[in-house]
Amino acid sequence: MKPVQVQQLFEKNLTYLLTLFIVLGIIYGLYFPCHTMVLQPYIPFTLFLMLYPMMIGIEIEEVKQAARNRRLIIWSILINFILSPLLAFVIAHLILKGLPDYQVALILLSATPCAGMVVGWTGMAKGNTPLAVVIVALSLLMSIVTIPFTMIILVGTIVSVDVFDLFKGTLLVIVIPMILGDITRRLIISRWGRPGFMYIKPLLAPVSMLGMFSILFISLALGAEKILSQWHIVLIILAALIIFYILLILISVWLIRKIKIDSKDAAALVYAVVGKNISLAVGLAAQFFTPLTVAMLAINPLVQAPVMAWFLRYSKRLKQDAEKESPS
User: Fold this and answer.
1) Which residue has the higher pLDDT, 316 or 193?
2) Is the separation of the CB atoms in 126 and 267 below 8 Å?
3) Rounded to whole angstroms, what are the CA distances from 27 to 66, 83, 288, 292?
4) Domain limits at 127?
5) pLDDT digits (tens, 9 = 90+) for 127-138
6) Is residue 116 domain-resident?
């Protein structure tokens, strides 16, 4: 099976695979509770397995292109790192009141940068993919500083947060895989050339997904009893996530029409705002917060993916409207 076929297989069955690992993790935690703690030391390894392949595919040099479209870059940063966390903070206090683990999850999710999948979604929408690549890389670099500060300011009012550990953890989680990923990419290109790298690149996402599934399995096994005792809260969690993403989409679409952003750039901006890096959020939650926090993040793709699919259809309408308004 070719690398691109492996990637398509994982992407096509992502929801099923995610559900499978969630169920397996909870079953393991319920039926083998004495053995769950044995799994905890493997979290750093699975975290590395998740993030390292992701970093191989990101070319940091492309951040230099950001100066070519400063307006969109600035708007994506403002929405992702300021508006999004504030919005999540308000929703967490209104809808998830009295559920600190889930409040932390929503705020952590909102504070994470966009993921590499943003580039793929932007491409499917026939948007500005080079711009999407720049936003992904730049946002990832900025998140080394923004995530700790956001969590300290907003989450510090909900649970106790160790400032130094969170900053050090975020730095290590992002920087080490980023450096090793950059070195690996250069070695691959020097050995097999860029065509060779582009051939194996589709394998990076599936390997990263396996790392994320492993973290979910371990975290859910550790918190299986607590999770099942609060199963009825799933509906409240889904409501909070749906409201969060709908408001992000509405704000983004309003901005697109207000400042008259080109339809191709609009696709890159919206996906950069909505395409939160669930892998990074899960990794940080598994290290610094509770299994219940991880559990809410595990539910997130069930809302995020349909929202991104909906905008894919809406982006076609934006393009048609732009074509009608443009002079023939």
Assistant:
1) 193
2) yes
3) 46, 38, 23, 15
4) 3-314
5) 887 788 788 888
6) yes
Judge whether 206 lies within some domain.
yes
- Tell me the per-residue pLDDT of 69-111, one tens digit each, with 9 for 90 and over: 778 888 888 999 999 999 999 999 999 988 999 999 999 999 9
Closest CA to 102 of 225, 197, 241: 241
The whole-angstrom separation of Cα 55 and Cα 271 is 19
**Cα dihedral sign, 156-160-164-167:** negative
Please count the structural domains in the chain: 1
CA–CA gap between residue 119 and residue 123 (Å, rounded): 6
* CATH number of the domain residue 140 falls in: 1.20.1530.20
CA distance 325 to 132: 25
**Segment holding 1, helix H or strand E:** none
Q: What is the pTM (predicted TM-score) of this model?
A: 0.80
Q: Is residue 327 part of a domain?
A: no
Best CA proximity match to 83, nearest among 146, 125, 144: 146
Domain contains 68: yes
